[in-house]
Amino acid sequence: MAEISSVGHPPSSVDRQILALAVPALGALVAEPLFVLVDSAVVGHLGTAPLAGLALASTLLVTVVGLCVFLAYATTAAVSRRLGAGDRSGAMQVGMDGMWLALGVGVVLGAATWAAAPWLVSALGAHGEVAHQAVTYLRWSAPGLPGMLLVLASTGALRGLQDTRTPLGVATAGAAVNAVLNVVLVYGAHLGIAGSGLGTALTQLAMGAVLAAVVVRGARNAGARISPHAAGLWANARAGAPLFVRTLSLRAAILITVWVATGLGAVALAGHQIVNAVWGLAAFALDALAIAAQALVGHALGAADVARTRAVLRRTLQWGVGAGAVLGVVVGGASWGYVRLFTPDPAVRHAAVVALVVAAVTMPMAGWVFVLDGVLIGAGDGRFLAWAGVVTLVVYVPFALAVRAWAPPGAVGLVWLWAAFAGVFMLARAVTTGWRARGSAWMVTGA
Fold it and tell me: Which sequence ranges are marked TM in the entry (predicted)?
């Protein structure tokens, strides 16, 4: 703490900046899952087959968009660094290039998803009416992928400009519009599950257009170029490639965990679904702190203020560990109560509760990991994060395989699985990112 005060950055000042960025970011993060919830609620009343089809199709969409999250992260880091260096025009130019890249990738992925929809659904083991419903939703929602990725890139640019309020407003309005469109198209226009996919696609395209318009206006005011530029597109793609590898390693770990849970039986798999849902909700709060860390660290390094970078690192880590501890108390302490909302099965409840206690114990470490991820992303240290992601996956896989091979089914097996994932996997991430943060190689200053 003395270090923060000695360089003229009192804790209260840093805290205000963290909260000013993290609170709206948390709101935007929470607003996004409402799309899936609304789709599920509307489609669920159409019958079991449409709901099952939606589950498959939405999983595929979330995976595609999740792998492209580098469009937000890389843009945030680059824009905040340019802004910190006093080059607002350059910052806006990076933001524009990121959006053009997102638009191009979105068009390609949208077309590919539409064409490959039957094969993708079949690969997940669906058949008959469920497969038909899944393909229908996927094809009607695929045209919205350019909008979804444009939302990522423009949100990344605005975060780099330390504006998390605009994405919050657009995400909140989008969730409301999506709810209305789903009801109108599914039931009013009698389009069935196709109406749900179309409503989501139209909403995402509108959100992307609104956020892009905000960035374009800022670029014009700053004198930045609006049209696409090959060098800028390539620079954004090159900066995002390591973050894509990092995200791929995380997704692989999650998929392996689900595979292991499946092998532990129906009770363990159902319990895992509950634990994973709660873990994901808690992760939103920690992600919001990581987003604040990205923007503040990128800005400080762009301004060549190493002392401030260290101050932000120290304070955001304190916030992350503290928030993780509070979340751990809530997640573990209240687990007996809220798991009843998920299932009436006593065996599944028991499995979920004991696994949630394990997850709760590791929450402070998760806060540390999430914040350090944000710090290193904000510093543009994607290459290290890519290698660290591969290393942590290699460390985790033998433990996951051991659980699959030797752990008993049911609650005990699920406890061992979450000890491996929330314990071993997160510890490996904590050690690698913590080791990196202790040094200075990641603190490259200037634009």
Answer: 18-38, 50-79, 100-120, 140-161, 168-187, 193-216, 248-271, 277-298, 319-339, 351-372, 384-407, 413-431
pLDDT digits (tens, 9 = 90+) for 301-353: 888 888 888 988 899 999 999 999 999 999 888 888 878 876 677 888 888 89
- Cα separation, 295 vs 22, in Å, equals 10
- Delimit the domains of the chain by residue range: 1-22+240-447, 32-228
Q: What is the pLDDT of residue 6?
A: 37
- pLDDT tens-digit map of 160-208: 898 989 998 998 899 899 989 999 999 999 999 999 999 999 999 999 9
How many residues does this entry show for the chain?
Answer: 447
